Amino acid sequence: MTTDRSEWQAMAQAAGMDDDATESRRQVCLAVATTLANAGDSLWVGGSIIGGDRVSGASPFRFGSDAVVGLATVTQIGGELCSGTISLLDLDNRYAAMALLRQLVEVEYLAWAFAEDNEEAAQWLRADKEARRRMWQPRHLRERSGDRFRGKDYQLGGHPTPEGRPLLPDHERMSSFWWWYELAVHGVSVWEYVTVAAALAGYSTHTDSAARASGLNDKIARWRQTDHLKDITIGPMDLADAERADKERGGS
Length: 252
What we know:
Elements: H1 3-17, H2 19-49, H3 53-56, H4 66-90, H5 94-116, H6 119-126, H7 129-135, H8 138-144, H9 177-200, H10 204-214, H11 216-226, H12 236-248
C-alpha cells in the first residue's frame, strides 16, 4: 500500500474514532430513523384523506393524493431501513447492514426524483412492475440525475461476491465507523430530499413537526460540525478498490 494511502487511512482513523464525532454520528442516525418514520406516518394519513385524486378518478387506489402517499411510502421505507441498519450495526453484522444501506441508497434516488417533480411520486406509486423496471431502476435514476450520485455508493452490500469479505467476521475488516458514517450521509440526504418534496406538495408542516420532535436539525448541525470524515475525500469503497488493485499488481 502506498505511503499516500497510508496517510489517508491514518487521517480517516483519527476522524472516525474521535469521541465527539462517534457520538454525533450515532445520534444523527437514530434521529433520522425516527424522523423519517414519524414524518412518513403523518404524510400517509394526510395523503390518504386530502386531495382531489379520489374525486377525479386519477387514483386507482382512491387516495386523496397519490403524490403524497407515494412520498409517504418512500419516507416510511427509509425510516425502516435506517432503523434496521442501526440494529444490525449494533450487532456488528456489517454485511447484512450494508445490504440494507444499499436499499437506502435506492430510497435516496427516489426521494431526489420526488423532490425534483412532485408528480413523480404519483407516477411511481401507480406504476406497474414493467414501468418501474423501465423508469425507476437505480441506474436510470443515476443517469437522470447527472453526476449527483456515485455508482460506488450502490455497491455497498451488493450481491454476494468475494469483494464482500471486508464486511465479514474473521477477515481483514474495515473499521465500523465507516458504515455509521455512510448511514449518516445517506440517511440525512434522504431526509433533505423528503423535506423538499413535502414542501412541493404543501406538507412542510408534517416534516417540520417530525424534525422538531426528534431535534433532528440540531443533530444534523452537530454531526456536520464534529464529524471530520467528511473532509476525507477517499471513502471505504475507494480504499477497497485501491487495495484490490494493489494486490492484483503484486503490491503490498
